[in-house]
């Protein structure tokens, strides 16, 4: 089990994709990460961002190797973030800019295991501390209402949302899994385990 100093078990994590080394350098040197508004997860106000590295990272692909505290966020445009690409087709689209603290490198990376196509999903400090694979970050179904309540409280405290946007009621488990970004993870691992069992027969 990793010992991550100062990381609380109740810390809220957003697992996010980092598509190329340039964006990792932006996070490291300039201290920010961007998320397109139209595909952003429901809650941006989290404690930490965990960066999942895709296939463009060579020997360090398909893993979480870095995480960072989130210091705040703002809404801006791509052209304001990346000035040297004024002709980019998304130049004037809106993006969340997450302000980051220093990147922290894990001693042991959290590997993708069987699943490599990852989008945004939430997890907790407790799961992050003990995770060996991405599968270990999936919040169990019985704990998801607690995670959603914590995200709801965090969002309303950050004054970016009103409480009415996060109704304090029981949410259908399938909808809740989607809100947490977990539904596709669950489905993938279920499909993968069935495929594995069939191939072993």
Defining key terms:
single chain, 201 residues, Archaeosine Trna-guanine Transglycosylase, Chain: A, domain 4, 29% helix, 26% strand, disordered C terminus
Notes on the protein architecture:
The chain is α+β, with helices and mostly antiparallel strands. It has a single domain, classed as Roll (Archaeosine Trna-guanine Transglycosylase, Chain: A, domain 4). It contains 6 helices and 7 strands; from the N terminus they run E-H-E-E-E-H-E-E-E-H-H-H-H. Strands 1, 2, 3, 4, 5, 6 and 7 form a 7-stranded mixed sheet that branches.
Briefly, what is this?
This protein is of the alpha+beta class and 201 residues long. It is built from 6 helices and 7 strands.
Radius of gyration: 17 Å
Beta strand %:
25-35%
Q: Structural class of the helices, strands and pairings?
A: alpha+beta
Q: Mind describing the biggest β-sheet?
A: 7 strands, mixed
Approximate shape: globular
CATH topology title:
Archaeosine Trna-guanine Transglycosylase, Chain: A, domain 4
CATH architecture assignment name: Roll
Taken together, the total number of domains comes to: 1
The top level CATH class name: Mainly Beta
The CATH H-level superfamily is Hypothetical protein
Would you tell me the overall average pLDDT?
84
What is the straight-line distance between the termini? 33 Å
